[in-house]
Amino acid sequence: MRATEVPTIAGAYLFEPTPYADERGFFCRTFDADVVRSVGLDPHAFLQDSVSRSVRGVLRGLHLRSGAGEAKLVRCSYGKIFDVVVDLRPDSPTYRNVATFELSGETQVTLYIPAGCAHGFQALTGTADTSYRIDRPHDPAEDVTIAFDDPELAVPWPLPVTLMSQRDREAPSLAEVLKHREN
């Protein structure tokens, strides 16, 4: 497994496993504490694992947490997703940058998203399972959502949106979220 820094989002990393494939399928390590530690992250900081299953066209996001934020490791364990990260850390050299990735069950690449960044994804396949490992217990009172179609962000979602939560449909613009954060 190797770690590669994401140049457009300061502190973000891609963890790329080395799958072993044969006639049975494949095997690969999806988390390696030594590799995580090698880029300055504490592998023991991750406290909760979750998984979501989405069908083609489903969009989840853009989500972040208020307060101390939430760092996370995200991996598409089955299927394929279009993944989006928005740097919303005012002191970051990549503040307001948007980065997109294609994560898939074929590659099992894991994306590390630093606290203070918004995250969302769209399922590109009939079924897409997305695994999350987060560094704080989830507190719904800290949930923040930004409109997925905010023109300032101009995220190039690859498919028409087939389904999203009511919270995501009613999400405020980036400008509204940032104004609220400043108050």
UniProtKB/TrEMBL annotation:
Quote the SUPFAM superfamilies the UniProt record gives.
RmlC-like cupins (SSF51182)
What EC class does the entry list?
isomerase
Task: State the superkingdom.
Answer: Bacteria
- One matching Pfam family is dTDP_sugar_isom
Question: Which chain regions cross the lipid bilayer?
Answer: none
Name a single GO biological process.
dTDP-rhamnose biosynthetic process
**Which segment of the chain is annotated as a signal peptide?**
none
Q: Which reaction does it catalyse?
A: dTDP-4-dehydro-6-deoxy-alpha-D-glucose = dTDP-4-dehydro-beta-L-rhamnose
The biological pathway it contributes to is:
Carbohydrate biosynthesis; dTDP-L-rhamnose biosynthesis
In UniProt terms, what function does this protein have? Catalyzes the epimerization of the C3' and C5'positions of dTDP-6-deoxy-D-xylo-4-hexulose, forming dTDP-6-deoxy-L-lyxo-4-hexulose.
Alphabetical list of NCBIfam families matching this protein? rmlC (TIGR01221)
Entry protein name: dTDP-4-dehydrorhamnose 3,5-epimerase
Q: Which organism is it from?
A: Streptomyces silvensis
